[in-house]
């Protein structure tokens, strides 16, 4: 009898879990739709903006270049921004980010961190790394205002030559089923090597009114847009990862329920059989007397 | 060689096609870009982009951004852009009124900035839309 009650309780537990995970899956699905569309729709803009600023660096003379484009000499330190979710239960997303973070840490020694998201903040703090600033990621679609304080800190560190370059670690949204951690260098702005073969640009470019007036606002815009784009990508990745993880959790719970139900029925049948046998042998003994 | 134009905003690619001429409002005044224009990078101010192709003309309202010309390819990175025929006048007017009211109340520096940006957007849309509509509704002379 005891066995049956325990199984019944386990079925109830598994059922409760499956209800929770199902609800989380549905929330993630509805959030994902918006996140995905905003992350993907702004991609062409940011790509173009990055390409524009990168090719611009090559076109400018050394003296015209803005501080954003110059690599400071004899400063080896790196500022690494890490974007992670605030909450767990999203499959391997955070583990993968942490792995990449450790990898970066191995490659380069002097890294200072800016963490966005509680999960990575905890990890980084536990590793005893130097955290310059930490932000919350939030659980809704990132708003643009989140970018300003980050850009301000980056400005402070990069323009005052406290760090030699600024990198960013985020989870790139490939599709709903795969997100991968990626590291990109955002400052100093320079042409990526893979694009070097097609630098047959027009030799002469006019700036109106002049580079000194256009560059600061363009580069500032670049920094903010790039940060925001990576925030959106991270957010979409988080929701997609959570949706998939919760879906498989719901399925697993369902499997356990099925198995336990079978076990429950078996034991119940067994008990009934035993009781019948008891009654049968009892009455047989009575008849024998 | 043909001139291609691409207008991209953070929301979507608004326009991508071959064109004959582009007239754009920049910080230094209105400029026209024809095929084989020299490489150029400039800033756009809120106003109206006029796209000419063959015999047709199209208007796009922008609220500022950057314009790049490189080898007969124009890219416009606009903060916000909308084609004249897509502008809903009533909606734009309502937005303008709302922004004006917000600015009059002026709750905080941040809200004020947001309201100001909205107002510029609404005014630009309206200016382009009314101009375009007037032209469209004018009876054709024979």
Helices and strands, with pairings:
The complex is a heterodimer of chains A (289) and B (142).
Chain A: H1 2-41, H2 43-59, E1 78-83, H3 93-107, E2 111-116, H4 118-126, E3 130-135, H5 147-159, E4 165-175, E5 178-187, E6 205-208, H6 211-288
Parallel strand pairs in A: 1-2, 1-4, 2-3
Antiparallel strand pairs in A: 4-5
Helix pairs in contact in A: 1-6, 2-6, 5-6
Chain B: E1 3-8, E2 13-19, E3 21-26, E4 29-33, E5 39-44, E6 47-53, E7 56-62, E8 65-70, E9 73-78, E10 81-83, H1 89-105, H2 109-137
Parallel strand pairs in B: 1-9
Antiparallel strand pairs in B: 1-2, 3-4, 3-6, 5-8, 6-7, 7-10, 8-9
Helix pairs in contact in B: 1-2
Task: Note down, in words, how this protein is organized.
The complex is a heterodimer of chains A (289) and B (142). Chain A starts with a helix and ends with a helix. Chain A has a single domain, classed as Pyruvate Kinase, Chain: A, domain 1 (3-Layer(aba) Sandwich), CATH 3.40.1380. Chain A is elongated, with a radius of gyration of 29 Å. In chain A, helix 1 packs antiparallel against helix 6 and helix 2 (43-59) runs antiparallel to helix 6 (211-288). Chain A is an alpha/beta fold and 289 residues long. Chain A has helices spanning 2-41, 43-59, 93-107, 118-126, 147-159, 211-288, and strands spanning 78-83, 111-116, 130-135, 165-175, 178-187, 205-208. In chain A, 30% of the residues are buried. With 142 residues, chain B is of the alpha+beta class. A five-stranded mixed sheet of chain B has the order 2-1-9-8-5, with no helix packed on it. A five-stranded antiparallel sheet of chain B has the order 4-3-6-7-10, covered by helices on one side. The N and C termini of chain B lie far apart (35 Å). The A-B interface holds A 41-42, 44-46, 48-49, 52, 55-56, 59, 145, 201-202, 204-209, 213-214, 217-218, 221, 225 and B 6, 8-13, 26-28, 31, 38-43, 66, 68, 70-71, 75, 77, 110.
């Amino acid at each position: 009898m005891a066995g049956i009650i325990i199984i019944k309780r386990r079925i109830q537990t598994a059922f409760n879990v499956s209800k929770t995970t199902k609800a989380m899956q549905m929330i993630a699905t509805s959030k994902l739709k918006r996140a995905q569309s905003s992350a993907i729709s702004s991609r062409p803009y940011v790509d173009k903006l990055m390409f524009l600023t990168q090719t611009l660096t090559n076109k400018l003379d050394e003296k015209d270049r803005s501080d954003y484009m110059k690599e400071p000499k004899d400063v080896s330190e790196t500022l690494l921004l890490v974007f992670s979710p605030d909450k767990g239960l999203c499959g391997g997303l955070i583990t993968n980010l942490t792995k990449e973070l450790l990898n970066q840490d191995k490659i380069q020694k002097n890294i200072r961190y800016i963490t966005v998201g509680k999960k990575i903040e905890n990890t980084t703090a536990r590793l005893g790394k130097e955290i310059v600033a930490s932000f919350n990621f939030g659980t809704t679609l990132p708003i643009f205002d989140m970018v300003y304080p980050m850009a301000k800190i980056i400005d402070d560190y990069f323009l005052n030559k406290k760090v030699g370059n600024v990198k960013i670690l985020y989870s790139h949204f490939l599709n709903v089923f795969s997100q991968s951690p990626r590291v990109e260098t955002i400052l100093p702005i320079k042409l990526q090597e893979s694009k070097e073969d097609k630098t047959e640009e027009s030799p002469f470019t006019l700036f109106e009114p002049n580079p000194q007036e256009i560059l600061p606002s363009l580069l500032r815009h670049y920094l903010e847009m790039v940060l925001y784009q990576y925030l959106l990508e991270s957010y979409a990745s988080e929701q997609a990862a959570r949706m998939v993880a919760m879906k498989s959790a719901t399925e697993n719970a369902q499997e356990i329920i099925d198995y336990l139900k079978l076990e429950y029925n078996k034991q119940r049948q067994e008990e009934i059989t035993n009781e019948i046998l008891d009654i049968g042998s009892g009455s047989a003994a009575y008849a024998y007397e | 060689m043909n001139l291609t134009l691409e207008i991209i905003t953070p929301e979507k690619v608004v326009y991508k096609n071959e064109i004959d001429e582009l007239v754009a409002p920049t910080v230094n005044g209105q400029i026209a870009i024809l095929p084989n224009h020299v490489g150029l990078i400039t800033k756009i101010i809120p106003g109206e982009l006029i796209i000419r192709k063959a015999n047709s003309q199209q208007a796009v309202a922008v609220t500022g951004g950057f314009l790049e010309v490189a080898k007969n390819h124009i890219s416009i990175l606009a903060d916000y852009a909308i084609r004249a025929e897509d502008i809903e006048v009533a909606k734009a007017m309502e937005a303008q009124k709302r922004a004006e009211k917000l600015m009059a109340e002026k709750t905080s520096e941040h809200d004020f900035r947001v309201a100001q940006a909205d107002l510029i957007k609404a005014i630009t849309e309206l200016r382009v839309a009314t101009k375009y509509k007037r032209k469209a509704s004018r009876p054709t002379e024979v």
